[in-house]
Amino acid sequence: MKQLDSTKAHFLKEQIESTWDITQHYWYPLYKCKRSDVLAFNDDYIEGIEEKITDVRHTLLKINFDSVYEMNEDRQVWLIDTDSLVPTMSKYNGERFWFSEDMSWIIYASHEGSITFGGEELLNQIKAKWEDWQSNLFAIETGQVEDE
Questions:
Q1: 32: burial class by Cβ within 10 Å (0-12, 13-18, 19+)?
Q2: According to DSSP H, which parts of 20-93 are helical?
Q3: Which of 17, 91, 96, 103 has the greatest number of beta carbons closer than 10 A?
Q4: How many CB atoms lie within 10 A of CB 53?
Q5: Residue of 107, 97, 56, 60 lying closest to 77 (CA atoms)
Q6: pLDDT over 80 at 63, yes or no
């Protein structure tokens, strides 16, 4: 795990916000998103389930991402090995985003019990592995905050 210098971190924060339509401190499903290639799951579908966490890691490795960026709620950005990725909420770091430098995919763990995946290739791979994915989607209408 390596913390990025402020210049690189600032660049990546601007890129992730513009690419993934992150207009608020929190993201989808807590706020609306114009992207159509995002799905939010109930966190208990993934959190603490080693098989699901391993599936995510293997999928990213399969599509050639040996390392990923992690952005914590405090907006510090780190480069981590894909093998150490745990795409869930953390009691120490709060909400977190994980993403690639090319912005082709994103994962977001929220404080409202959701874990969002974005990016067509990542979603297709995850849906192929998780046959019951449709019955574990986050209920957006109960969790989404209206734009102010």
A1: middle
A2: 50-62
A3: 96
A4: 16
A5: 97
A6: yes
The pairs formed by 55-63 with CB atoms below 8 angstroms and a separation of 24 or more are: 55/126, 55/129, 55/130, 56/85, 56/87, 56/107, 56/126, 57/82, 57/83, 57/85, 59/122, 59/125, 59/126, 59/129, 60/85, 60/105, 60/122, 62/125, 63/105, 63/121, 63/122, 63/125
The string of pLDDT tens digits covering residues 3-49 is: 899 999 999 999 999 999 998 889 999 999 999 999 999 999 999 99
Q: Which amino acid is at 29?
A: P
Q: How does strand 96-99 pair with strand 77-81?
A: unpaired
CA 114, chain centre distance (Å): 10
* Tokens read off for 57: 């890691």
For residue 29, is the peptide bond before it cis, meaning its omega torsion is within 30 degrees of 0? yes
Question: What residues form DSSP beta bridges with 116?
Answer: 40, 108
List the structure tokens of 62: 């399969």
- The kind and range of the H/E element at 123 are helix 120-129
